[in-house]
Structure formats: structure tokens, C-alpha cells
Amino acid sequence: MADILVPMIAVPLILFMIFVAPIWVIMHYRSKRKLSQGLSETELQDLQQLARQAEHMRERIKTLESILDADAPTWRERK
């Protein structure tokens, strides 16, 4: 029993350590390095554009809520 069980565990473990583990470690540290470098110029521009759009949407929502408050004061209570 033990002479069959050891190869059944050892062979997949050795294959994992030879093929999967090195790629896993390389990809892990590559992603860590990319995160530590910060945002690229295009990512920063995209983030700023999204922030402007969010601010614009916030203003529109505020305006729409004030219109609804004037026209239908109980609209917030509806579900």
C-alpha cells in the first residue's frame, strides 16, 4: 500500500514544483513590482477623467433630487 501511495503523491508534487511553482512565483513578484510602480500616465489620465465624470454625475443627482423634493416630497419614502 505504501509503495503505491508514495509515488502517487510524489510524482504530482515533483511536477508541481518543477513547472507550476516557478511560474507562480515569477507571476506573483511581477504583479507586486507593477503595483509598487504606481499608475502609468494613461491610467492616471483615465482616473482623472473618471473623477471628473463622477463629480458631474454627483451634481446632476443633486439637481434631480432637488427637483423631486419640490415636485414629490414623499418620493424618498417610496420603495
TrEMBL record:
Pfam families: PspB. Keywords: Coiled coil, Membrane, Transmembrane, Transmembrane helix. The keyword DNA-binding does not apply. It comes from the Bacteria. Residues 40-67 form a coiled coil. The chain crosses the membrane at residues 6-27. GO terms for biological process: phage shock; regulation of DNA-templated transcription. This is Envelope stress response membrane protein PspB. It comes from Pseudidiomarina terrestris. The gene is pspB.
